[in-house]
Design brief:
With 318 residues, the chain is an alpha/beta fold. Helices cover 31% and strands 16% of the residues. Its EC number is 3.6.1.17.
């Protein structure tokens, strides 16, 4: 009996609204469900972008500390660690480029004059597992690839990063670097020559994130892109550009993840595929799926709250 919750990105008010909608209350200093057997599993990305990042971390960590939640690492928590950690020869593991500073700005600003508190949360980030699995389900921030997960099980310590592993993980081209990138940021494929697009932050890219639960041999560039992009060709993708042609098939156990900034009304991608990131930081939805062990997921178990200014204005009017 688990409520999976997607990327929060510092929207603590929406998180509290969603938790209350799911039946959680705060009789003490942390949220707990009225049914003691029901808990939350957060799929990562608690920081950056939103107005109440410290409050979000307080809610999530207090639930984890008191046994009413499990929290996974997202790419934003991983990026924050790399942004903070210094290299032995100077600089930082995640370079302090303008685009990286902008991404972390709201987090850093909200922890201004709270350095000790911020560094304590960075230490907590290292306790977050990168994935979670039971007999009934799997959960990860961005992508579940069995070969990659099996490799990470041999490298990580209780599915978690250590200081040495964080340093090793940023070395481009290493197996650990590629495994972390894929697990926390998803699979990508290079676009045909001459094609590119601007992402949600205005960064020009020539690679697209792909639907890793679809058979790439059956897909076109437009169909396999997670983000709907009109300028992508309706031609079969060049399979030679994929490092792995494996995909998450319909026979595997349900998998829950976030990361992809989906738009529109929250819906399942397939009966065993549940993406929970519907762009709460871009006036979308904060989404949960209430799981009770079913093998076939259903849209009726999705619960969400809107962060749209239009919806908020309508609710105030009503």
């Amino acid at each position: 009996m688990i409520d999976f919750i997607g990327d929060i990105h510092g929207h603590a008010d929406k998180l509290e609204e969603l938790l209350q909608k799911l039946g959680y209350s705060k009789p003490n200093n942390f949220y707990v469900h009225s049914n003691p057997n029901r808990t939350v599993l957060f799929v990562g990305d608690y920081i950056d972008r939103g107005p109440k990042i410290r409050e979000t971390l307080e809610i999530v960590k207090s639930m984890v500390d008191n046994g009413s939640a499990i929290a996974l690492m997202g790419n934003h928590e991983y990026n924050a660690l790399c942004f903070h950690y210094q290299e032995t020869d100077g600089g930082h593991l995640r370079k302090h480029l303008i685009k990286n500073i902008v991404q972390h700005y709201k987090t850093l600003k909200q922890f201004q004059n709270r350095q000790v508190e911020y560094e304590a949360y960075l230490e907590w980030f290292k306790t977050l597992p990168l994935f979670y699995e039971t007999k009934e389900f799997r959960a990860v921030h961005a992508c579940w690839d069995e070969k990659t997960i099996d490799f990470l099980k041999t490298k990580l310590v209780n599915n978690r990063l250590t200081d040495d592993l964080i340093i090793e993980s940023v070395k481009k081209g290493t197996e650990l670097n590629e495994a972390i990138e894929q697990t926390l940021k998803g699979k990508e494929i290079e676009l045909p020559q001459g094609l590119s697009f601007d992402d949600k932050d205005g960064t020009n890219r020539n690679e697209i994130r792909i639907k890793w639960w679809e058979d790439p041999a059956e897909m076109t560039y437009r169909a396999i892109s997670v983000e709907p992009l009109e300028n992508l060709p309706e031609t079969k993708i060049d399979l030679s550009l994929l490092k792995s042609k494996d995909f998450y098939n319909e026979e595997q156990k349900p998998v829950f993840f976030g990361h992809y900034w989906l738009k529109g009304k929250p819906l399942l991608k397939r009966e065993n595929i549940c993406c929970l990131d519907y762009s709460v930081a871009k006036e979308g939805y904060l989404v949960a799926y209430s799981f009770d062990g079913e093998h076939h997921l259903t849209d009726s178990n999705l619960t969400f709250v809107s962060n749209s200014k239009k919806d908020l204005a309508f609710s105030r009017k009503v």
